[in-house]
Write a structure and sequence with these properties.
CATH architecture of the largest domain: Single Sheet
Strand order of the largest sheet: 1-2
Low-confidence stretches: none
Structural class: mainly alpha
Number of strands: 2
Oligomer: single chain
Distance between the termini: 119 Å
Strand content: under 5%
Largest sheet: 2 strands, antiparallel
Shape: rod-shaped
Number of domains: 2
Mean pLDDT: 85
Order of helices and strands: HHHEEHHH
Length: about 130
């Protein structure tokens, strides 16, 4: 039973619910409060994740040194088939494609570089000769 009698000093009483809540607010050490749940989350003030240099999200784990979003520092970007929408958002063609958008045109012409195109004789010059 968790009741106290002021007249009986020999009786050892367990802490009440109010006292337990007070202990968690006052700042009694975590291991003494015997809780890992709601009351302990307010005491956590260190960050587990920081910004990832590849994807820019705050998903880079400080201790694991891996990004939960893109998988950095692994060479290939993290992607799974269970997230088809996620793959669609990040696939090739959703960004600038600064280099890749010119490749198809260069392929049609055989990837020639440094040479100028030969001028075709115009129709007007052919008529005069």
């Amino acid at each position: 039973s968790e009741f106290r009698l002021k007249s009986d000093p020999e009786r050892v009483a367990l802490p009440t619910v109010a006292e337990r809540e007070h202990n968690s607010l006052v700042g009694i050490p975590f291991h003494l409060t015997k809780t890992k749940g709601t009351s302990s989350f307010g005491k956590r003030h260190t960050k587990t994740h920081t910004l990832c240099r590849r994807c820019g999200r705050r998903a880079f784990h400080n201790q694991k040194k891996t990004c939960a979003q893109c998988g950095y520092p692994s060479a290939k970007t993290r992607s799974y088939n269970w997230s088809v929408k996620g793959k669609r958002r990040k696939t090739t063609g959703t960004g600038r494609m600064r280099y890749l958008k010119h490749v198809s045109r260069r392929f049609k012409n055989g990837f020639r570089e440094g040479s100028m195109t030969k001028k075709k004789p115009s129709v007007a010059s052919m008529d005069t000769s």
